[in-house]
Every structure is written in structure tokens, then in C-alpha cells.
Amino acid sequence: IANKNYNADIFISDETNQLLDTGGALLNAKNYFDFSKDILVHNVDILSKIDFNDFYNHHKAENNLATLAVSQRQTSRYLLFDNNNKLCGWENTKTNEKIISNQSDELIPFGFSGIQIIKPELIDLIENKGAFPIIPEYLKLSASYPIYSYIHSKDIWVDVGKIEAIEKAQRLLENTL
Known about the structure:
By secondary structure, this protein is of the alpha+beta class. The chain is 25% helix and 27% strand.
């Protein structure tokens, strides 16, 4: 990193003593953000070919507090959206747990991609502290604020946080380079 010019400031959050999860990491990094600009939050264990320009332009055009990248894929945990792509809930199909934050006649399930763009003021709306996942915060906030999806089902996406997925990611990368 030191020998390349990425035209970006890069900071590493040291979570050696405790993993903070996405919510806790956002709060931990708060002092590094430029609060005049939207923030791209990208899980480190995700590889994708998402069109970030299109994603960002969609976020800006919709004026969302948060825009969550999602795709139609098999998973055990789904974010649930209405016909207008507003976040309405979450479902774990293995445990049958379901959280509904906004009522809707039809709930459309999408797999969360671990990539989101947020307005910086979202950070000040988070009530949790310490280590915590961001999805429950999004669910709470979606009752009062615009939190919507960006659907990128046709893009390459791999969660490389599991050993078996690394080989799949390698094959995909070899075929796309």
C-alpha cells in the first residue's frame, strides 16, 4: 500500500482484542470520516464486480440514508424489501426467525452483499455501542428513514470468508481477468 498511489487515505481498524462487527467498526472509525461525503462500507471478505459508479449514482439519486447492495441468491438469511425496494425486514430461514420493521403486502427476499453506501449522519443515529452487527440498526432506522436496496444480481459476488469459497473466487477471477 505504501508504494502505490491510490488517491485515498487508508486506515486499518485494529480489532485484535475484539471483533467489532460492521456496526461497531463504523463507530470505531467515526473520527476518520469526512462528514461532508457519503461513506462506502465494504465487508473485507467480499469480492465482487459491482459497478460502484452506478451504485453510488443510484444512492445519490434516491437520496437514501443507506443503500444496501443485494442480490437474488440462495442464503439462509435474507433482507426483506417491499415493491419499492424499501427495507422492511429480515429473515433467517434456518431458524425461522423473522423481524418486520415496516409492514408490506409483499416482502421480496434478497441476500445482503455486505456492501452499502451510507450518509454520514446515519452514524449519529446508531444507539448501540461496542461490538454489534449493522443490520438490526438498519431495521430500526428503516421505520423512520429511507433505507433501500441496490439490486446487482447479475454481478459477480463471492463471500470469501469461508475456506471453500476461496477456490470458487479464484476460478471466477481467472475467468474474468
